[in-house]
Amino acid sequence: MKVVRKNGFTLIEMLLVLMIISVFTALSIPHIEKVAEVKRENYMIEQLTEDILYAQQYAMAHKTAVQVIFDQGQAHYHIIEMGERQRVLIERSLPDKWIFELATLQMPLAFLANGNVNKAGTVFIKNNTRGYKIVFLLGKGRFYVQKM
Q: Which Gene Ontology CC terms are recorded (predicted)?
């Protein structure tokens, strides 16, 4: 004769496990928000970098000057093809509370047909707590982004 045993969890055990899971979830939510904010910031910088590289490549591919205009004290930038068409290639805004601050760079920044910039300089991207510095170098149209 076989003995059939019915093992399972009691209601108290189940409630205890659910309570532990909910406490861990409640503790991790603030950390998830910080991680999401860092991801948005990284995406913003990557997008800006890609847009500037696109402007340089467009200038070289189409043998025309391309202007990159950062709006001082605001959160907008434009990339405009110069020449016969004078059309806007890219127009973007930064996320909330981020602004451009021109340091030594004078607007407009232009990538010439050979890919070089017309002038060197520095632009800051800032919010209340953090900031980035974009430095444009003379020769070969190189630039770099540095966290401050």
A: cell surface
Q: Pull the structure tokens for residue 144.
A: 């770099």
Tens digits of residue pLDDT in 9-35:
888 989 999 999 999 888 877 778 888
* Contact indicator for 109, 67 with CB cutoff of 8 Å: yes
Q: Of the candidates 115, 148, 110, which has an alpha carbon nearest to the alpha carbon of residue 132?
A: 148
Domain boundaries, the chain: 11-147
Token code pair at residue 26: 């409640």
The whole-number pLDDT of residue 86 equals: 85
pLDDT at 129: 86
- C-beta of residue 48 within 8 angstroms of C-beta of residue 68: no
Identify whether the C-beta of residue 102 lies closer than 8 Å to the C-beta of residue 76.
no
Fold of 11-147: minor pseudopilin epsh fold (3.55.40)
Name the strands in the sheet holding 109-111, side by side, starting at the edge strand that comes first in the sequence. Answer: 88-93, 76-81, 66-70, 109-111
Q: How far apart are the first and last CA of the chain?
A: 77
